[in-house]
Amino acid sequence: MDIKALRYFIEVVRRQSFTRAADALFVTQPTISKMVKQLEEELGTQLIIREGRSFQLSDAGKVAYERGQDVLAAMARLKTELSDLSALTCGELIVGLPPMVGGAFFAPVVSAFRSHYPNVELKMVEYGARSIESNIRSGQLEIGVAVLPVDRQVFNTFSFVRDRLCLVAPAQSRWHGKRSVKLADIVDEPIVFYPEDFSLSTLVSEGFRRLGKTINIAGRSAHWDFIAAMVEARLGIALLPESVAARLYGRPFDVIPLDEQQIIWHLALIWQKDVYLSHAARAWIQMSRDMLGSLE
Fold first, then answer.
1. Comparing C-alpha atoms, which of 21, 8, 10, 6 is closest to residue 197?
2. Is 204 buried (19+), middle (13-18) or exposed (0-12) by CB count in 10 A?
3. Cα(222)–Cα(198) distance, integer angstroms
């Protein structure tokens, strides 16, 4: 079986889109379609039933998706264990980080890791927290950062930050001088929001639903600095985690804590239970504990 074709098929199913899968894998959409067709021919059965722009899995496709994840996980573990024979004198470590997390917390960890283990190739990949969780579960990543809660029967965790959100508005806004705001105070405002696959999107959207409202989305970005730029351009307001919003103090913004106990940015480094971890991954976890501390 062509492992690359299987990987492409699983990415299409995971992202529910040929286009998004192509973007994630840095290939063209026709390449994705060709590889999925090749896999179907190799297995002798139709895996994907196309319905216009959407699709659904055939019964065979559902089995191929479930078992295919096991195959990719086994291949990833084999590669890790073989490369790990030389401990930390070579090899690579891939760490999944949500876009707003890397610069805010892990730049010192990256610097220290490279200093201690210069022969290990360190790669940082940016996904939403839910995609990172899925990739660790399937064995595509060893470790990464997710938003809690996660399934504790599947993952080991150590949490290192628990942030409330902050309203970010242009300076001298109508909230200027307030000590805090409630979600109900801003439900009718246009909001510069996160991508749909971000855990924060789910948390905030659920808060709006509790109020019987839908979010008036003025734009989306995965990057806090671009979100801030759109707020500064008066396209809307934003809700950023406190440790990220702290970077805006002294700039032309009103930054006001959001008083909502159910909307908390609780971050943790996660890895699968009962799965072999490379020396590099174990070293990264220990270094992260030492430098970031733990809330657990």
1. 21
2. buried
3. 8
pLDDT tens digits, 12-31: 998 888 888 888 888 898 99
Q: Is 102 exposed, middle or buried (0-12, 13-18, 19+ CB in 10 A)?
A: middle
Phi/psi of residue 100, nearest 5 degrees:
-85, -5
Distance CA(37)–CA(48), nearest Å, equals 9
Q: What is the pLDDT of residues 215-252, one digit of tens each?
A: 999 999 989 999 999 999 999 999 999 999 998 988 99
Angstrom distance (rounded) from CA 281 to CA 284:
5
As given in the structure block, the two tokens for residue 153 are 């029967």
**pTM, 2 dp:** 0.68
User: How far does the chain reach from its first CA to its final CA, in angstroms?
Assistant: 43
Q: Which residue has the tokens 């805090």?
A: 180
- Which DSSP string corresponds to 75-120? HHHHHHHHHGGGGGGS-EEEEEE-TTTIIIIIHHHHHHHHHH-TTS
